[in-house]
Amino acid sequence: MPPSLTSFKDDALIALDNLTDRATGLVHPTIRLGVTGLSRAGKTVFISSLVHNLLHGGRLPLFEALRSGRVSSVRLEPQPDDAIPRFQYEDHIQALVRERVWPDSTRAISELRLTIEYQSASGWGRLFSAGRLSIDIVDYPGEWLLDLPLLGQDYRSFSQATVELASRGVRRELAEQWLALAKSVDPTAPADEMTAKRLAEAFAAYLTACKSDERSLSTLPPGRFLMPGDLDGSPALTFAPLPNLGDARFEKGTLGAMMERRFEAYKSVVVKPFFREHFARLDRQIVLIDALQALNRGPEALADLERALSDVLACFRPGSNSILSSLLGRRIDKVLVAATKADHLHHESHDRLEALTRRLVDRAIHRIGMSGAGIDVMAIASVRATREGTVRHGGETLPVITGTPIAGERINGETFDGKRKTAVFPGDLPEKPDSLLKRSDSHSEEPPLPHLNIVRFRPPELEETGGATLSVPHIRLDRALEFLFGDRLA
Predict the structure, then answer these.
(1) Which residues contact 94 (CB under 8 A, 6 or more apart)?
(2) For position 286, what pLDDT does the model report?
(3) What share of the chain is helix, strand, coil (3-state, %, to 5)?
(4) Whole-angstrom Cα distance, residue 318 to residue 48?
(5) pLDDT score, position 1
(6) Which residues contact 475 (CB under 8 A, 6 or more apart)?
(7) What is the reported pLDDT for 454?
(8) DSSP single-letter state for residue 94
(9) Rounded Cα distance, 481 and 490, in Å
């Protein structure tokens, strides 16, 4: 986050927090890992699988410290921040492993501490290192991350950008009610609480419609309008963008002045505390995205995902942490963008999913004019719910995936009961992602994106051996862990 978006007081408080963290880290080495994701990308599942695999000795061949036998123990410990809710790992694993249902999505911030005892790979490391690393996993909704760019906007620029975006493509229809109401009000008229409430409700309904499975759009700030929590009904959430505001200053007591004041209150009450108390203290970050869902919804959803990635990556300052920068202005030195649900495709398309995600990230980086140092891209499945196979159809052999569709899922007119397995041909991604992105760039009528047969499967059934449950299966979770904190176990 550029320094101009925070005040001198904010910077001083952030520096104090970082000094406190670093002082503690001298005695107890710690890394703060931020985990977030855009809509329904699987943050809760990722954290649960990460912890379960480390605690249960999961198959993680690319996680070098574990593969080489240098990890002696892994355990959960009390988290350091008593005011933050604990990530309910045990409840989520119960849902995944015992009940075979996907846990509820992230609605607020939570934290979990995982401590790894290890032996350094070098003699010097064994001499000077305590051989212990605590990983403080900070789980927060992706909508909160997309709020951070608001710190660099005033109410007029926020209104202009939001109205312009809402006037294009599929958003135009979804925003019709809100925009009609917004255009009917006079910002110079006296402030009226009921008018403000109607505007806020119509705007929130528009954002909710954009997020729905049918649309799967990603750029949806302000995030608390979608998950208000204890701020529901507060003045900080009772405002909306207005069109055609011009440059004239709002007179005190007008509707425009009320909207402007509440937008600033939203930044002060909601966005700044999250930035200072949580985001500015992170060392590493993983951003999970559901690129398959965007592909299935068409070029506009894919373009919106790229726009959201631009906003997300603009919040980070990837680069190496010097001692001074880590003390006074901590820098997130590694960011991983992971396309989830790779198990919904045959492995022949995994590299293509990763290539598409990399192109989305590269274009987003170019769009915001930043360096790509410290940023990596992967296609993963935090929990692998399918197996692969082949079937003969029409004289040719097709690659398929096999799993148990969740109850109520319909495939070719057939409704499944959540118990019976089936084989599905998921479809193929094109070898080169540029053909997909050119369509998302075009405003003219284009052929639809390749259809993917995306089926919602239940979590896999895990066997118990000698009373112990096998670790959760995954795809490339080990590669993600090695990138995120493998260097800190060297």
Answers:
(1) none
(2) 96
(3) 45, 15, 40
(4) 26
(5) 42
(6) 342, 343, 350, 379, 380, 381, 384
(7) 85
(8) I
(9) 13
pTM across the whole model: 0.88
The 284-289 sheet, strands edge to edge: 71-77, 110-118, 132-139, 30-37, 284-289, 334-339, 375-379
Amino acid identity at 301 = A
261 three-state secondary structure: helix
Structure confidence at residue 323 (pLDDT):
35
Predicted confidence at residue 127, as pLDDT, reads 56
Confidence at residue 3, expressed as pLDDT on a 0 to 100 scale: 40
**Dist. CA 157–CA 424, nearest whole Å:** 47
- HSE-CB at 331 with a 13 A cutoff on CA atoms is 15
- Both tokens of residue 1? 């986050």
3-state SS class at 32: strand
Distance CA 44, CA 110 (A): 10
CB-based contact 472:52 (threshold 8 Å) = yes
Six-digit token string for 16: 């104090």
* Torsions phi, psi for 388 (to 5 deg): -105, 155
At 15 the pLDDT is 54
CA distance 431 to 451: 15
- The single residue listed with the structure tokens 């609605």 is 107
Q: How far apart are CA 458 and CA 453, in angstroms?
A: 16
Q: What is the model's pLDDT at position 290?
A: 95
**Residue 455 is which amino acid?**
V
Task: Identify the pLDDT of residue 470.
Answer: 80
Count of beta carbons in the 10 Å neighbourhood of residue 428: 15
> Which residues of the chain carry a pLDDT beneath 50?
1-4, 23, 320-328, 444
130's tokens: 């305590």
**How many Cβ atoms are within 10 Å of 472's Cβ, its own excluded?**
25
